[in-house]
Amino acid sequence: MSRRRRVLLTTVGGILFIAAFSLLFTLLSTAAVEQGQIVQQLSEVRAALERENAAMEEIIARESAIPRLVERARALGFLPGEGASALPLSLPAPRPTPGMRP
Fold it and tell me: Is 51 left (phi over 0), alpha (psi -120 to 50) or beta?
């Protein structure tokens, strides 16, 4: 093989290697950018969900406050108990139903 041919093959091989390396680098860079965009989108979705959860927690806290529960109970027709300050700790035993085994 002549010296000129070896130089030409070496040059072409080097150019092909650099082209392949550049293509691989471009593909990997593109994939990294796409993954970065996906991470950014997921971060934005997470932040929106966290804001939504905080708003829901605030609504739950407001709606479960005692004055609000009393107001809603009255709106539904419930009345305050007369003289009953607590529920009984024990209930009477249920009566047996005829035809039923205990």
Answer: alpha
Residue of 51, 47, 28 whose CA lies nearest to 39: 47
Sign of CA dihedral 34, 35, 36, 40: positive
Instruction: Tell me the per-residue pLDDT of 69-95, one tens digit each, with 9 for 90 and over.
Output: 888 888 999 887 776 666 666 767 777
Say what the pTM is.
0.51
- Chain-centre distance for alpha carbon 101: 50
CA dist 71 to 81, 84, 85, 90, Å?
A: 15, 19, 19, 30
